[in-house]
Amino acid sequence: MTAISMTDFGALPAVRIEGPDGAVAIVTLYGAHLVSWVTSDGQERIFCSAKSSLDGSRAIRGGVPVIFPQFAARGNGMRHGFARVSTWRLGDNGDGFAEFTLTQAELAPGVAAAWPHAFSLTLRVEVLLDELRFVMAVRNAGTAPFPFSAALHSYFMIDRLAYTAIDGVQEGEMLITDKYDHIYFGVERSIVLRSGMGALRLDQQGFTDAVVWNPGAADSAALADMEGDEYQHFVCIEPALIEPVTLEAGATWTGRHQINVVYA
Ligand SMILES: O=P(O)(O)OC[C@H]1O[C@@H](O)[C@H](O)[C@@H](O)[C@@H]1O
């Protein structure tokens, strides 16, 4: 059985997507936020903080936040955009996949007034054999162009930072021991994340850049929604479109991200 069903994650309504090999992903309607991906070997691959709000009062800390239409504080709007704090609608769905949609109509009135563009955002989440696949599409449904940035701010679970290496973002293997926050522009290769929990291969199309982030001990202690040494147990590797792209009226931009389990 590879169907989808409704569930809860904390106080948030969510969609459970089961793949052909028994892998399961959970996506909350709040943010179209993937909060869990358990592969067929029973291993959780995605980090979510034990202190995260799970009631829609603020963005979820962990999972795969959808960043749109602004990256971080690079603009005058809401930090990392409004998509992660808006409630999306469940759209087309079937065996092993679900699509989520957000348009101007779903936005809180203040948010819609601050970003007055007719848009349609779709996120397709598909659970395949040892693979998680995202397709994010932004459509300009209005009559004038608008600029946007986008990212899938993926928090990957690792056992410890010290046992973790990232390949494919720079020359040679990259190691993180504490705070790290860097944008790699023009990523063209597969990225491989290796940790004591095995390896994941990350591929992206449409997203031109990748952000690698970990808050380290000091910044993590300052985050109200992260506890203790949790920063040791994730690394964010985010397919991103950092420099705003102008989308013409009627046009659609598509970004894709595939995460594959790599067996040695
Ligand atoms: O705390 P937020 O808004 O979820 O942002 C987390 C991090 O997101 C990353 O994408 C940024 O590069 C970091 O600078 C930022 O701290």
Automatic annotation (TrEMBL):
Return the EC number: 5.1.3.15
Q: What's the protein called, per UniProt?
A: Putative glucose-6-phosphate 1-epimerase
Q: Which domain of life is it from?
A: Bacteria
**What's the source species for this entry?**
Massilia soli
Q: Which reaction does it catalyse?
A: alpha-D-glucose 6-phosphate = beta-D-glucose 6-phosphate
Going by the UniProt record, its keywords in alphabetical order are: Isomerase
**What's a Pfam family in this record?**
Aldose_epim
The kind of enzyme this is, by top-level EC class, is isomerase
Give the family this protein belongs to, as stated in its UniProt record.
Belongs to the glucose-6-phosphate 1-epimerase family.
